[in-house]
Request: fold
Amino acid sequence: MKPSVILIGADKGGVGKTTIARALLDYLASNNVITRAFDTENPRGTLHRFHPEETEIVDLTSTSDQMKIIDTLETAQIKVSVIDVRAGGLTLALQALHDMGFLEAVKEGEFNFLIFHVLGSSIASLEEIEEIAPYVEDAQYFLVKNHVNDTTFFEWDPVTHRKYFEKVQTAGELTIPKLNEIAYEQVEIAGTPFSTFVADKTAEGDPAGHSFVLRGYVRTWQHKISEEFDRVGLLGLVAPLAPRAPAAAPGKPGRTARER
Amino acid sequence: MAGHSGDVFIVCSAGARTGVTTTARLLTDYRLFSRAPVAGFDTDPHEPRYGALFPDLVKTVDVADIKGQIALFDRLLAQDGVTKIVDVWHRGFQRFFATVQDIGFIEEARRNGIEPILLFHADVTEAALASAQRLHATWPALPMIVVQNEGARPLGPDAADILRRYPAQHKFFVAALPGPLANALDDPSLSLSRFLLAPPTNMSIVVRAALKSWIVPIFTQFKSFELRRELESSDYLR
Reply:
């Protein structure tokens, strides 16, 4: 299986990159895709807090950490790597990947490279698209609209849309739906993956006693996100040979595009 | 119709004044009359009539608020052997079922061995029928009982045809009470379960007789439904 790197980032802070990284890790795990993750929010590491077992905190500007990620892509047992880029660091991360020759290797077909560009609600996000366009030619480049915190997106009038999108070819758009604020907050407090919260477990695997209502909201939200990932055929892009998950219970994530 | 211990009865209608609270009240009183555990929930936070009838048994919740949702749905899923009755305020009907769907309540209840049962109140409008059909389309396996309350919303001479169009497995009939007797029901201190066990001595004999002849067929329907459910779940009759 060809190694895959999924980069999640934005040049604007507070757009929910780590939430999407968490949702993605849950989705991949529920589909039996073993994944490793790198959290570039050095040294704090929000993603690491929720997914400590598979996440390592790294500094993308450090050569040794770059080697830790890129040089191990071929040799690591785990073939899918998720990189959660710290706020404001998307262009810098892409520049670093370019400088170290990773983008060239992608062009030559050595690796799959996916970019989840998380958009904020302002026109500044559209300007980001222009900035990173030179780096995404050989990537599967997805624009992600994150409504998890009820972001209201500006209306993209056709003229504005064309102005920015003609500069870049995207693999598609992903829409992350809103999650009830209290449910979101409770998962934050629990400090566990969304799937662990839904399963009513603590990080240690003990019964957590979370409210069913809140778990229900999170489960439905995860299900909708899974549908989005299925819609763009994400599993086929990162893990074409991955075994399929058992049939998901109603309201649970886990169906793949190939099952439809 | 008390069903099995732990069942959840969702008493609802798409429109106003169809007798939802009366049904919730009758079912609660039937459980009390049978000396069986019961808990109720009134989803009208502004004028909780059901709550006023059973202040010790019925909790008023606002399902538009997440705290109310937690107070309601988490309790409905408790495996405590208590039958629960939810009086769905007609103005909150859409919101209630949207929440049920959003949180996957029906599926979770079944996983926990709890059977939700809908008591849907019919009226002559196409809107009511369409609402019932939408619920059935969303949860095809959810048992639905269509309620005809002749005192609240008479269906008229076409009643049989109207009811036949509802996607319901069972029918439940509540007869009309003559006006003066219906007024007796408005008294929140009148307990129908206590009335059957020991009618108040200060009540007119005529009222007593009429009320009894109104309640008994209703409780008989509850009992009949209860027995049917027990037979259906019997290991010996499969």
